[in-house]
Design a protein that fits this description.
InterPro entries: LpxK (IPR003758), P-loop_NTPase (IPR027417). By secondary structure, the chain is an alpha/beta fold. The protein contains twelve helices and 13 strands.
């Protein structure tokens, strides 16, 4: 599912669709409020850092988790995630040699290259499994609205370019819950984007952010690949595919075609064969994201290039202070 256009309207002009859907949004917000008010089922004996968001769709949680894993270093960090798009109920420790995206989801496969990852539809059971396996700190991926686990630190990740959209709750807007409600349970906000986007976010939403804020941007990981002048056909099934396409252009690639897929869309043999044929007709190289690459059929993994990105902090004092309080 792709987000309706009116979700990105300015908060002062949310659109007639948002106003018409306000009663349903109120019901959704009420249901979320009742759910998050439940007491936790498990309180771990190690710090639990929740990396979540307030909006539907991608905001940069996966690069944030990777950056935190790099920052935590030798702290024996484990990741617990629902494994969106995968069939496994868990708790299951991800093994990229045995598991595929259809079983555990694409993000867990990507994260498993950096740390032990547990897929668990029951987050409390996943945390128990990680702690029993020797985790010194647990990163709870996308668990802000899940009350099952007590959080030691909750980080709200925001795409600075889109902020909180029109400021309305699903289905009237992109929010999973009102901003004020989310801020009441957050310890830190991390906004991701370039300088101009960060400034716009501050002007539009700065007054709504009632907790310390850190800033970061995504940067291409230098692997020796020269993208300048390369004729490419790009495809991406992430929250905002246009960000990936813009990054390729910024790297100097000649983007002949950009195919935006649904978030987490399966990359079937039929779909990939079509893309391969169209790329050949254009004389272009197929390129995708790291997250999409783990969903590629095995026969296409040598045919598609990947553009990796990493999170780089611009202002991390608030994050370092929060981690310091945990002794990390």
């Amino acid at each position: 599912m792709r987000a309706p256009g009116f979700w990105s309207n300015p908060p002062a002009r949310p659109g007639w669709q948002a106003l018409a859907l306000a009663p349903l949004a109120s019901i959704y917000a009420g249901a979320t409020a009742r759910r998050v008010a439940r007491p936790p089922e498990v309180t771990a004996g190690v710090p639990v850092i929740c990396v979540g968001n307030l909006t539907a769709g991608g905001t940069g949680k996966t690069p944030t988790v990777i950056a935190l894993l790099e920052r935590l270093g030798a702290q024996a960090a484990h990741v617990v995630t629902r494994g969106y798009g995968g069939s496994a109920e868990g708790p299951l420790r991800v093994d990229e040699r045995q598991h595929g995206a259809g079983e555990v989801g694409d993000e867990p496969l990507l994260l498993s290259a950096f740390a032990p990852v547990w897929v668990a539809k029951d987050r409390a059971a996943g945390v128990r499994a990680a702690e029993a396996a020797g985790a010194g700190v647990i990163l709870l991926d996308d668990g802000l609205q899940n009350p099952a686990v007590a959080k030691t630190l909750s980080v709200v990740v925001v795409d600075a370019e889109v902020g909180f959209g029109n400021g309305r709750v699903i289905p009237a807007g992109p929010l999973r819950e009102p901003v004020a409600a989310g801020m009441a349970r957050a310890d830190l906000v991390l906004t991701i984007g370039g300088a101009a986007a960060q400034e716009r976010f501050g002007a539009t939403w700065g007054g709504a952010v009632t907790v310390p804020r850190a800033t970061a941007h995504l940067e291409v990981l230098r692997t020796g690949m020269d993208w300048a002048g390369l004729r490419v056909m790009a495809f991406a099934g992430i929250g905002r595919p246009e960000k990936f396409f813009a990054t390729l252009r910024a790297e100097g690639a000649e983007l002949l075609r950009a195919e935006a897929l649904d978030d987490h869309q399966p990359l079937s043999d039929a779909l990939m064969k079509r893309l391969e044929i169209e790329a050949a007709a254009l004389g272009a190289q197929l390129v995708t994201t790291e997250k999409d690459a783990v969903r590629l059929p095995s026969s296409f993994r040598q045919k598609v290039l990947t553009l990796p990105v990493r999170l780089r902090f611009d202002e991390a004092a608030a994050l370092e202070t929060a981690l310091g309080r945990l002794g990390l």
